[in-house]
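Marked as duplicate of an earlier ticket. Keeping the data here for the record.
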Amino acid sequence: MPQEICLSVKQLVEAAREAIEEISVEEALALVRDDGVVIVDIRDVRELQRDGKIPGSFHCPRGMLEFWIDPASPYHKEIFSKNKKFVFHCASGWRSALATEGAQRMGLKPVAHIDSGFSGWKKAGGPVEMPELGWTATE
């Protein structure tokens, strides 16, 4: 018997978007040089390698986000203890909406996400840099 999913990913994303702050690419472009803001890229490392990243953004793989945020976690990253605004993004805004909602529920604040993600960033002509990863996705 197949699984019966009662809540779709689309519904989860819509609910998250109602609970969080969404910012446009234009707003994000204005924040990229703000020292009080950390742009957090939650895409898979292979996406960064293939498509590039927002200059100065901090990469946090989606699967590690909660562990890196929690100061009691052995995986905690100090950047999430700073008194800054955290603006999350993924490729199109779905994963980052869910990530932002989770971070907000954990108590990280202030948080927001870029509504159209990295694809919207590139479409708007936002600057892109290729990360120095030191390895290839096939390794």
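See parent ticket for discussion. Confidence is low (pLDDT under 50) at residues 135-139.
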